[in-house]
Design goal:
single chain; alpha/beta; four-stranded mixed beta sheet; 3 helices; 8 strands; globular
Length: 134
C-alpha cells in the first residue's frame, strides 16, 4: 500500500456560522462546494493541499470538539491539527487581532520548530508552527 496524500480532516461543530467565520474569515481558507446529497449540514474549506470538512453536530454525529483537557492543550499532547505558517510572529499578531487566545506556547518543539496552540470555537485544538530560519 502506498499512501499518496492526506486529503481532508473532518470536524464536528455546534454552530456552523461561527465555524464558517473561524475557518473562512479568520484562517483565510476558501469555502468550496459540498455535495448536495448529504442529509446533514456542513461546509467544506480548501487550504494549500488539504481540505477541512465541517459537519454540523446533530443526533447522528459524534459530539463537537476534541475534548482535550486544558493541560494537554498547553503542551499540544492531545488530538490536534497542525498548520505550518511562514511567520509565527505575524500569525500571533493575526490571532490577537481576532481575539483568539493562545492556550499553549510559544514553545520550541526541539527540532527547529516553534509552535503555538489555540482552540477553535468548538474546542478543537489547532497548532500553528514555523521553522526557525537562520
Amino acid at each position: 500500500m502506498q499512501l499518496l496524500t492526506l486529503d481532508h480532516s473532518t470536524l464536528i461543530v455546534k454552530n456552523i456560522e461561527r465555524s464558517q467565520w473561524f475557518y473562512g474569515t479568520m484562517l483565510g481558507l476558501k469555502e468550496i462546494p459540498r455535495p448536495s446529497t448529504f442529509t446533514f449540514g456542513g461546509l467544506w474549506f480548501q487550504g494549500a493541499g488539504f481540505q477541512i470538512h465541517l459537519i454540523d453536530a446533530h443526533d447522528t454525529s459524534a459530539p463537537s470538539g476534541f475534548g482535550v483537557p486544558r493541560d494537554a492543550a498547553r503542551t499540544g499532547r492531545g488530538h490536534h491539527l497542525a498548520f505550518e505558517v511562514a511567520d509565527l510572529g505575524a500569525c500571533l499578531a493575526h490571532l490577537a487581532a481576532h481575539g483568539i487566545e493562545i492556550v499553549g506556547g510559544p514553545q520550541a518543539r526541539g527540532d527547529g520548530v516553534t509552535q503555538v496552540f489555540v482552540e477553535d470555537p468548538d474546542g478543537h485544538l489547532l497548532e500553528f508552527f514555523a521553522w526557525e530560519r537562520g
